[in-house]
Amino acid sequence: DWERRRDWERRRDWERRRDWEHRHERAMHHRYNDDYRYYRR
């Protein structure tokens, strides 16, 4: 039971980290697109 709980916590932390990295990548991508649009004008 303890092993299962530890494994679940590890997977939850990994999923949260992956979600945060994905959101960060999208934010950087949007910022880059805004800069590109601004420079193109």
Task: Provide key terms for this protein.
41 residues; mainly alpha; 1 helix; rod-shaped
Write down how many β-strands occur, each being a DSSP E stretch of 2 or more residues: 0
- Show unreliable segments: none
First CA to last CA: what distance?
60 Å
Count every helix, treating DSSP H or I runs of 4 or more residues as helices: 1
Q: How much helical structure, as a percent, in the residues?
A: over 70%
Helix and strand run: H
Relative strand content: under 5%
What spatial form do the alpha-carbon principal axes imply? Answer: rod-shaped
What oligomeric state is this? single chain
Would you write up a description of this structure?
- There is one protein chain.
- By secondary structure, the chain is mainly α.
- It has one domain.
- The chain is 95% helix and 0% strand.
- The protein has 1 helix and no strands.
- It has one helix spanning 2-40.
- The radius of gyration is 18 Å and the shape is rod-shaped.
- The mean pLDDT is 75.
Secondary structure layout:
Blueprint lengths: L1 H39 L1
Summarize the structure.
Helix content is 95%, strand content 0%. With 41 residues, the chain is mainly α.
